[in-house]
Task: inverse folding
């Protein structure tokens, strides 16, 4: 579905990503784990077209998207749920959700938008209850659901999520991750960027470890979870204190 | 039958994407964690991030057996020792050996790759697999053992030696698959004949042989004598052990596990790649190893790459069965004899690589070969002496049988093989040509 080859990008003179090569197959949940500043968000922003790749290939559905503007990329079916939710606080929940249907309006499929709204309300009943409430008054978890709901309105084939668990309580994180699994169950493909490596690897099929802009490991979620370096650096396990495993 | 169909029959383009991803992450890891590689890359002015395609691999330096030995024991490990759960070593006495390590993930991955090869060779979970590779530092025994267990077969860790007992086990335990070196399979076949056991008394169906080059003629003999389908498989401890490649039942080349190993075939003299179909030295880069990644390892094994698809459906490229080694061949009475073959046979018989020297003399028109083997400990007396005598006789018989040239074997004291600079002299050719 998504195939990235030798992508380099950054901000100004700062090169953040160094020859990143990775792929996501249709129907997979793939996670990218890494420390703060490793380049995880930059990678998602590059794929979304928010920052331009300096070199390399980004193929989405076998189509090169590296030079397309962000809205074209969304139009092709690749949506981003940005870090920190980025909901429009002074607007209602429903208005926020409908904003995500922009590509559908462009296709003049107003009736379809109603069906899609029903579908996301089915997925997030809480949002239906609060559809008239201002987004700014929602809890963190609800805002995250809203951000996901908004992205789903574009009918994406690939949903990219940037740190969906950030700042949320453990129980809420569990809800969010259950939703991610559910989305895959409905045939979506998910690229999940997380600092909460344990939770992410818990639901992912495969993962990549990004370190200072380079991929240093690729493997099944199971392999990464049992890799000692990953355990020490990203799963917060103090192996020396544990003695024998 | 496949073990991991999504990997073994992967679309070529997808495979190459995966190989590039894994190559880049392996390079990033070795550059960060193995000073040996970092120094070599730095000396050539290459950063891992300059490798943007599989063909860029040729810009990287080779790694040789001498490099591995020079970093004895742990110099090439990419993880701290506490992450290593297994250590093997290739032949060679102490400092002359290659020491390799495996993390828990490496062991899992290795087992899966060996399971693939077993399945390709006809083995299923319902088989009784007798592993007659030597267990110990050598990777063969444990490698096949873990793979067969992973597959779910019933594994008999018979190890090598005591052939009569092995045959008894084979008969009584109803072994259906034999795993060993091809020369051991020949020995088993001979011994069965000597013991007067009809092949019909055995339940053998498949034989998976590796560890040394063997001919099609030898395959035919083994297949006929044991009533089995014999397949070849390949691996070496510096790369992982068994599990690099193996034949399927079509027996037309060894399928390489290309999602884990990147292979090249080069001309050993010019070091340039040779086109598919042409024989050259196999060079292997590991793509997923954690503890002991290997970049462009020169295996010294001669093979060629096949093009075209195999009817079995596996998409991994195939390599030909080994046609020999890059080291010098000795021509004795017109027969080609490889010193490394003698070395591996001694290793197999003795269980460890003994100190030895091959001495060739010419008496009149005839070449005479004597293998001097260092005796362990004090010279034996009495009863013990007779025992040693029979061991020497076993080695003599075996070498003569395998090499097709009469070989004399002499047990010598340690100091006889000592040299001034401590470097062993393996071949002493006294012939005046």
Result:
């Amino acid at each position: 579905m998504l195939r990235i080859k030798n992508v380099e990008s950054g901000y100004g003179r700062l090169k953040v990503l160094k020859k990143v090569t990775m792929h996501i197959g249709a129907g997979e949940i793939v996670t990218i784990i890494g420390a703060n500043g490793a380049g995880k968000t930059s990678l998602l922003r590059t794929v979304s077209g928010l920052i331009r790749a300096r070199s390399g290939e980004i193929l989405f559905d076998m189509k090169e998207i590296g030079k397309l503007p962000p809205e074209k990329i969304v139009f092709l079916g690749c949506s981003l749920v940005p870090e920190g939710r980025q909901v429009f606080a002074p607007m209602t929940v429903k208005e926020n959700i409908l904003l995500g249907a922009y590509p559908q309006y462009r296709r003049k499929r107003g009736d379809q938008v109603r069906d899609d709204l029903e579908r996301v309300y089915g997925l997030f009943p809480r949002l239906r209850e609060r559809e008239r409430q201002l987004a700014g008054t929602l809890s963190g978890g609800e805002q995250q659901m809203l951000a996901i709901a908004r992205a789903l309105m574009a009918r994406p084939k690939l949903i990219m999520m940037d740190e969906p668990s950030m700042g949320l309580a453990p129980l809420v994180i569990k809800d969010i991750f259950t939703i991610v699994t559910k989305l895959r169950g409905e045939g979506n493909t998910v690229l999940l960027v997380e600092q909460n490596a344990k939770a992410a690897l818990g639901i992912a099929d495969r993962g990549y470890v990004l370190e200072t802009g380079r991929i240093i490991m690729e493997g099944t979620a199971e392999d990464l979870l049992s890799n000692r370096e990953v355990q020490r650096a990203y799963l917060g396990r103090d192996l020396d204190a544990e003695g024998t495993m | 039958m496949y073990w991991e169909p999504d990997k073994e029959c992967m679309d070529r383009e997808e495979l190459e994407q995966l190989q590039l991803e894994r190559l880049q992450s392996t390079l990033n890891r070795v550059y960060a964690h193995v000073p040996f590689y970092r120094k070599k890359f730095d000396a050539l002015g290459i950063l891992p991030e300059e490798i943007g395609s599989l063909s860029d691999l040729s810009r990287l330096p080779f790694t040789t057996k001498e490099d591995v030995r020079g970093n004895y024991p742990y110099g090439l490990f990419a993880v701290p020792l506490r992450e290593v759960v297994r250590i093997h070593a290739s032949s060679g006495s102490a400092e002359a050996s290659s020491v390799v390590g495996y993390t828990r993930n490496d062991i899992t991955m290795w087992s899966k790759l060996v399971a693939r090869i077993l399945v390709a060779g006809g083995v299923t979970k319902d088989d009784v697999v007798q592993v007659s590779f030597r267990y110990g530092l050598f990777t063969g025994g444990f490698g096949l053992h873990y793979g067969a267990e992973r597959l779910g077969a019933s594994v008999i860790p018979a190890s090598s030696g005591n052939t009569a007992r092995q045959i008894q086990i084979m008969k009584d335990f109803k072994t259906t698959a034999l795993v060993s070196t091809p020369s051991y399979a020949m020995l088993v076949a001979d011994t069965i004949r000597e013991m007067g056991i009809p092949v019909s008394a055995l339940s053998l169906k498949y034989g998976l042989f590796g560890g040394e080059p063997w001919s099609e003629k030898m395959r035919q003999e083994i297949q006929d004598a044991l009533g089995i389908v014999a397949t070849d498989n390949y691996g070496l401890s510096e790369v992982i052990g068994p599990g690099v490649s193996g034949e399927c039942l079509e027996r037309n080349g060894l399928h390489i596990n290309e999602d884990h190993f990147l292979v090249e075939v080069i001309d050993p003299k010019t070091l340039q790649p040779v086109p598919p179909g042409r024989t050259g030295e196999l060079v292997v880069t590991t793509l997923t190893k954690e503890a002991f990644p290997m970049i462009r390892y020169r295996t010294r094994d001669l093979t060629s790459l096949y093009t075209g698809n195999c009817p079995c459906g596996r998409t991994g490229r195939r390599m030909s069965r080994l046609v020999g080694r890059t080291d010098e061949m000795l021509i004795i009475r017109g027969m080609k004899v490889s010193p490394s073959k003698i070395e591996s046979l001694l290793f197999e018989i003795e269980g460890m690589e003994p100190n030895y020297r091959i001495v060739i003399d010419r008496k009149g028109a005839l070449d005479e070969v004597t293998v001097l083997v260092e005796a362990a400990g004090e010279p034996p007396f009495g009863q013990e002496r007779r025992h040693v005598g029979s061991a020497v006789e076993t080695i003599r018989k075996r070498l003569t049988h395998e090499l097709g040239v009469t070989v004399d074997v002499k047990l010598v004291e340690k100091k006889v093989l000592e040299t001034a600079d401590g470097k062993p002299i393996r071949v002493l050719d006294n012939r005046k040509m």
Observations:
- Chain B has eleven helices and 21 strands.
